[in-house]
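[audit] Reproducing an earlier prediction to check determinism. Same input, same settings, fresh worker. If the tokens differ from the archived copy the diff job will pick it up downstream; this log only records the rerun itself.
[audit] input (164 residues):
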Amino acid sequence: MFHRNGSFHAWFASITLLLLSTEIAITNALLKRCYQCRSRSELGSCKDPFLFNATQSENERGVSAVPCASGWCGKVIEGMGSFREDDYDMATQRMCVQRGPSDSEDRCAYTVYNYKKVYMCFCQGDLCNAANRLNVSHRWLSSGTVIFSLVFWKLYLSQISQMV
């Protein structure tokens, strides 16, 4: 498969470096942003499904991507009670939050916000509050990168031992 001249070693190092640099760029971005908007019922563009990316949101009235010092974004849905069928009293708000949960885990839960019972989601990452569901954690991406590297390192070592 690979020759003794180090082509596997060079390939392995290149792939590992690429995966790790992508991971670092994703998790350590200097500027984390959150979508900021508010919509009532079917009016406005803030409701789910959220149909905009960062470029499209620049041209949409009432939707913006704002810098977020904490890195924590939020989405609040209020009025999900008895009016759920017609969405008349439902409002969706996306914003930067000053701080995330005490355990620093992305999550959604019912809570009280501004004296109202709401469904609130917290996520950490650039523009993460666009999603209907929480995105895959960067920890899983990091773990996958490490596992991928270890598996191919083991293959490399087995290739070397067979050549000797």
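[audit] rerun output stored. Observation attached for the diff report: The radius of gyration is 22 Å.
[audit] end
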